[in-house]
Write a structure and sequence with these properties.
Layout: H1 2-11, H2 18-48, H3 54-67, H4 89-102, H5 105-129, H6 140-154, H7 166-171, H8 182-191
Helix pairs in contact: 2-5, 4-5
Length: about 190
């Protein structure tokens, strides 16, 4: 009964239409994006930095953190970099299945699109953090996110989120140290 009422409401039959439908599509996409970013932060915290699943831990700590231990910024993305992104399918599969059962067609498509965007954006932005001279450096929001990510490399039990650091605030793992420019980080790296 509740699912039918939800489906009727999401189709906009009672509320008059396209504006509500568009708002609900946007709400679906935003909720999906933030849920997936939360899953990323939690998985990073509990599996990327703890040997609960040895393969995840090894790829992340001995791979990514080791490759960028000496120099956080490089001229281009290190091609041997491995991702643990495929392992995020573990929690995403039940989420997608639940969405398939609960969301009518177009909203499910919005959910899948937002999930795909979220995964891509996390990977893409993370790569941009480690490459010197990227276009995004001109934006303060990027500079802050990059700095928070570099703090994570220096303090591996802080700042687990890749994009949405509000989750770290909620999880009690945010370290919002002083703003350090890319040039200052490079100077620190050269002095090691």
């Amino acid at each position: 009964m509740q699912i039918n009422l939800l489906a009727t409401w999401m189709r906009g039959a009672d509320a008059g239409g396209e504006i509500i439908k568009a708002a609900l599509l946007l709400l679906t996409a935003m909720a999906t994006y933030y849920v997936s970013s939360f899953v990323q932060a939690v998985f990073h915290k509990y599996f990327g930095h703890a040997p609960r699943i040895a393969k995840l831990h090894d790829v992340h700590v001995r791979g990514h953190h080791a490759q960028y231990a000496r120099e956080m910024l490089t001229d281009r993305w290190i091609e041997t970099e491995q991702h643990i992104t495929g392992y995020y399918a573990i929690p995403f599969i039940p989420i997608v299945c639940a969405a398939y059962c609960l969301l009518p067609g177009i909203y499910f498509v919005a959910h899948i699109g937002a999930l795909a965007f979220s995964v891509w954006w996390h990977i893409y932005l993370h790569q941009q953090y480690h490459v010197r001279g990227v276009w995004w450096e001109r934006f303060r929001w990027f500079q802050r996110k990059r700095r928070l990510h570099f703090v994570h490399h220096l303090k591996p039990h802080k700042n687990f989120a890749i994009v949405e650091y509000s989750w770290d605030s909620m999880l009690g793992t945010l370290d919002d140290g002083p703003l350090v420019s890319a040039r200052k980080i490079h100077e620190i790296e050269r002095s090691k």
